[in-house]
């Protein structure tokens, strides 16, 4: 009886060794580098982690934030090169650029990058070879400008603030500028280098424009509340392109849910970590799902009465 019991135990152990998933699943080490902390980029990382969790991929994360400083981003990239990581998730253009210059073997997933080809992250949006793939969050600027103009048709001079040292912002401002031109609108641009400069920039801009539209700029978005204060004080309509700007005080945004941006990036990580695919065989992709969010409280604070048709169009209304 004892011998039989020992034999059965040996059989069970042998089966456990060969059955897929019977052994403890590996816990992957993932480095995360983010250019700055604000709701959109934070939601991106949350979505990334949820995608792995939903697909049964266990991971521990090394979170690094560059605090808006490119030198910090480069230092983080060098740190990650020396670490024994299974994958790196880089959020936003500057941190992604720093990573791809240093990391050539470890799989890299970028997200919240406007133009990954122009930024030098990949050679093509299709399978690009190498160790990099990811998700672009290029905004539909023409659709956004058209909608905002329809919401405040009396506004002919629009303003913006952006960081000219950020490649993502330079590309975005070019697209926004073209959209403004198409609809016969003047676009007044003010540049900043740090989030601390946003309040003064907003003060200098508010008296020269009829409305403000903020592009995909992490420096400005990280100090969005200071911009909202100026617009509320001076009755200047404020519009964002990211939906996370609306609860923070912009009137409306036709944009992405950045949790979904990160979730899409996370699904690419699942293909690599769980299914054994190479990053270079996975095409980069665009974020497609848009939603309109409106903040009626912000509209009132900035002296705007929206046509009810826009409220009916919105997927979310903050009252």
Describe the structure.
The chain has 319 residues and is of the alpha/beta class. It has helices at residues 2-18, 39-54, 70-82, 93-102, 141-151, 167-182, 198-206, 218-221, 224-234, 258-273, 296-301, 308-313, and strands at residues 27-34, 58-65, 87-91, 108-113, 132-136, 157-163, 186-192, 211-214, 238-240, 252-255, 285-286, 291-295, 316-318. The strands form 3 sheets. It has a 6-stranded parallel sheet with strand order 2-1-3-4-5-11, sandwiched between helices. It has a 4-stranded parallel sheet with strand order 7-6-8-9, with helices on both faces. The chain has a 3-stranded mixed sheet with strand order 10-12-13. Helix 2 (39-54) links the parallel strand 1 (27-34) and strand 2.
- Structural category: alpha/beta
Strands of the widest sheet, in order across it, are 2-1-3-4-5-11
- Number of DSSP-assigned strands: 13
The CATH superfamily of the largest domain appears as Response regulator
Percent in strands = 15-25%
In total, the number of domains comes to 2
Most strands sheet: 6 strands, parallel
Rg for CA atoms? 23 Å
Name the helix and strand elements from N-terminus to C-terminus, one letter apiece. Answer: HEHEHEHEEHEHEHEHHEEHEEHHE
- In helices, the fraction of residues equals 40-55%
Alpha-carbon distance between the two ends: 74 Å
Alpha plus pi helix count:
12
CATH architecture of the largest domain: 3-Layer(aba) Sandwich
What is the approximate shape? elongated
| Low-pLDDT segments, ≥5 res | 15-23
Please tell me the overall pLDDT: 92
The CATH topology of the largest domain comes to: Rossmann fold
Question: Mind telling me the CATH class of the largest domain?
Answer: Alpha Beta
């Amino acid at each position: 009886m004892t011998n039989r019991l020992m034999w059965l135990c040996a059989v069970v152990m042998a089966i456990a060794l060969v059955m897929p998933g019977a052994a403890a699943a590996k816990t992957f080490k993932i480095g995360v580098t983010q250019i700055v902390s604000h709701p959109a980029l934070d939601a991106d990382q949350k979505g990334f982690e949820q995608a792995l969790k939903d697909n049964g991929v266990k991971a521990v994360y090394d979170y690094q934030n560059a605090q808006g400083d490119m030198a910090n981003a480069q230092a983080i990239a060098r740190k990650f090169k020396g670490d024994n990581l299974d994958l790196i998730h880089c959020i936003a253009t500057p941190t992604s650029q720093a990573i791809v210059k240093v990391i050539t073997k470890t799989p890299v997933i970028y997200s919240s990058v406007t133009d990954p080809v122009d930024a030098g992250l990949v050679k093509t949006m299709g399978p690009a070879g190498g160790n990099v793939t990811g998700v672009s969050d290029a905004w539909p600027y023409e659709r956004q400008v058209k909608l905002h103009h329809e919401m405040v048709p009396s506004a002919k001079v629009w303003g913006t603030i952006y960081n000219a040292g950020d490649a993502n912002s330079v590309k975005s401002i070019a697209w926004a500028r073209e959209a403004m031109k198409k609809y016969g609108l003047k676009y007044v641009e003010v540049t900043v280098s740090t989030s601390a400069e946003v309040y003064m920039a907003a003060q200098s801009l508010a008296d020269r424009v009829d409305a403000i539209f903020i592009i995909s700029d992490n420096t400005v978005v990280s100090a969005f509340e200071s911009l909202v204060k100026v617009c509320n004080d001076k009755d200047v309509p404020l519009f964002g392109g990211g939906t996370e700007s609306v609860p923070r005080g912009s009137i409306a945004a036709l944009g992405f849910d950045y949790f979904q941006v990160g979730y899409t990036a996370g699904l690419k990580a699942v293909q690599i970590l769980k299914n054994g695919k190479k990053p270079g065989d996975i095409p980069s992709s665009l974020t497609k799902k848009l939603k309109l969010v409106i903040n009626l409280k912000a509209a009132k604070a900035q002296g705007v009465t929206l046509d009810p048709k826009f409220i009916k169009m919105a997927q979310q209304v903050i009252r």
